[in-house]
Amino acid sequence: MPNTHRLLSTAFLIIIALVLAGCSSTKISDKWRAENIDEPRAKKVLLLSLIKDPVTRAYFEDHFVAAAKEKGVDIIPSHKLAPNPTDLDEEEEVRKLLQESGADGVLIAQLKGVVKDYKHVPSRLTWFPDSYGYSGFYGYYYMAYRGIYRPGYIGADDYFKMQFRYFSTRSEKMLWAANVQTKNPRSIKGTIEQIADEVISSLRGSGLI
User: What's 199's domain CATH number?
Assistant: First the structure.
């Protein structure tokens, strides 16, 4: 557990430092939903993020909760009830937190990794076989078939990956799980908002919230 907390805190610091080309995009790479769910939609959900650093944990939860609120979903940030992550190291402490929150479900957020994907972009020669702006044979001959050479290079994409698991506080069973990844995150705030949007939409579509 301590290694997981340390990895998650470090990952968010990495995202803050990333200065990347291209646009970021977030999507659910794969998900699971329990069959024959006999549970009403949750009216209140507790967000429990496995982040050791209190400041990073509060930042993540607050922005996730704010994004969920815009979609009409009531989510409680766990750091409001248990500011110190070490307060939740024991099962009895977690049970107490769930009771105090009055939540119908609990959403656990956990980092899976920050992965760099290298790829080779081959060189290419682009041609322009048109004669716009050039009159006569010679103008066309010398200008229209001009080629532009673009050398190959090694490119890299960064993937920030998280796993979410949703449990019913009534049955204590896991009802939903998903892996979420963001390609080339541009900002930590924007990444959290995109992740929240994907997770909330999936939970709602699964009939859980």
Answer: 3.40.50
> Tokens 């977690």 belong to which residue?
94
Q: What is the pLDDT of residues 114-127, one digit of tens each?
A: 888 887 777 766 55
Instruction: Give the DSSP per-residue string, 16-79.
Output: HH---SS--EEEEEEEEE-SS---PPPS-EEEEE--SSHHHHHHHHHHHHHHHHHTT--EEEGG
The candidate with the shortest Cα–Cα distance to 47, out of 161, 172, 170, 199, is: 199
The two beta strands, 25-33 and 105-121, are unpaired
3-class secondary structure, 176 = strand
CA 182, CA 61: separation in Å to the nearest integer? 17
The model carries a pTM of: 0.73
Closest CA to 203 of 83, 101, 104, 61: 104
Any residues with CB less than 8 A from the CB of 206 and at least 6 apart, and which?
33, 175, 176
Number of domains in the chain: 1
pLDDT digits (tens, 9 = 90+) for 57-93: 999 999 999 999 999 999 999 999 998 877 777 888 8
> Cα torsion at 52, 56, 58, 59 (round to 10°)?
-160
**Alpha carbon of 60 to those of 31, 47, 180, 196: distances in Å?**
22, 10, 15, 10
Contact 75, 45 (CB under 8 A): yes
CB-based contacts of 72, cutoff 8 Å, min separation 6: none
Residue 200: domain span = 2-116+157-205
